[in-house]
Amino acid sequence: MSLSVIKTSWTTGYINYYSLRLNMNKSPALTALLAVLVVSALCSVAFCGLYVRDAMRLRDLQRSTSMIQTYRNSMVSFINETIEYSKKNPGIDPILEAAGFKPKSGAGATTNKPAGK
């Protein structure tokens, strides 16, 4: 008995395994599954690329935010030290008042009292 011929008790015909392969190649279900596989793979690559791009943008934004916060903290520290220095040397007060870092002292100071009747 050859390998390509199989006789069973319920059939008297020959089963050709090569014809099954040809039927599988022409099957619309196989074509549909392959199309779904290709679309899925392309979507996976696209989503991976989008994720990498967004992760790089996030890293750049975090770096920029960190630099801005560092600059702001150093400026606040410098202004506070300058105000402390102005307590020992009041000659710097006009510069601080002009910049708006220290309220104007003396007769020019405004109060929040309503005008009297």
Proportion of helical residues: 55-70%
Order of helices and strands: HHH
Low-confidence stretches: none
Tally of extended strands?
A: 0
What would you call the shape? rod-shaped
Query: How would you state the average pLDDT, rounded?
Result: 82
| Radius of gyration, taken over Cα atoms and rounded to an integer in Å | 41 Å
Biggest β-sheet: count, sense, barrel? none
Structural class: mainly alpha
Cα(first) to Cα(last) distance is 124 Å
Number of distinct helices? 3
Number of domains: 1
Assess the beta-strand content as a share of residues: under 5%
Overview of the structural elements:
With 117 residues, this protein is mostly helical. The chain has one domain. It contains three helices and no strands. The protein has helices at 17-25, 28-88, 93-99. The longest helix is centred in the middle third of the chain and has 61 residues, at 28-88. The chain is rod-shaped, with a radius of gyration of 41 Å.
